[in-house]
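HUMAN: Forgive my ignorance: could you write out one protein's sequence and backbone structure tokens?

ASSISTANT:
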Amino acid sequence: MAVSALETQAKPRVVLCARGLRRDFGGFTAVKNVDLDVHDASVHALIGPNGAGKTTVFNLLTKFLQPTSGTITLMGTDITRTPPDRVARMGLVRSFQISAVFPHLTVLDNVRVALQRPNNLSTQFWRPLSALDSLNERAEQLLASVGLAKERDHIAADLSYGRKRVLEIATTLALDPKVLLLDEPMAGMGQEDVSVVSAIIRDVARDRAVLMVEHNLSVVANICQHVTVLQRGEILAEGDYATVSQDERVRQAYMGTEEHH
């Protein structure tokens, strides 16, 4: 049966794809035969009990670790053997890998420094901060988009924990990633900050893919279109949250290991 143009349009394209991903450490297989399709303009969660291999998968995708076998493609280009800095420049960016906040700079200056990379100013480190004035408009836009406009002149070290994490997301967005990887963005946050960051992630995913490792299952239920459940390095289940949360194997894997919010 012919697929209508409307149906073809409705399915977002796959921007990050892994096939047969495996990683061995000595005699231990941390990740085994993982297939992953991350779609544009969507939020995809990687969940599972502690020790399931989620961080290893993240490290493989961002090339901090080399897979023992399998392939990874980013927007159709094979990046299986590509070094991490080049992968980041191609648009696959992991929050907190580059965006460590400078505690003694203001919120605005943190974002301006991050904007140097895509604007080719990063090699001109000897220039005064005033040389970054050309980046002010974009920096202000980024701060407004994550709700930090009022704190623009605050010293980063003075921000609450939750607001620091929001600033880290803003500095990551300064790199204009095509695929944004977030490693437990809600960890250690109070409910108010969780709500704020959830809204930011939902907004960010309107025009890019977001892949996140997250323990807070209510967040996953609220903002993720697709969920992949890992257990002992293998995919246990995948689909939308309603589907995976009804899976008996998923329920058993989580019994006593995770809070059900």
Remarks:
- The chain has two domains: 1-98+178-261, 100-174.
- Residues 142 and 170 are 6 Å apart (CA to CA).
- The first strand starts at residue 14 and ends at 25.
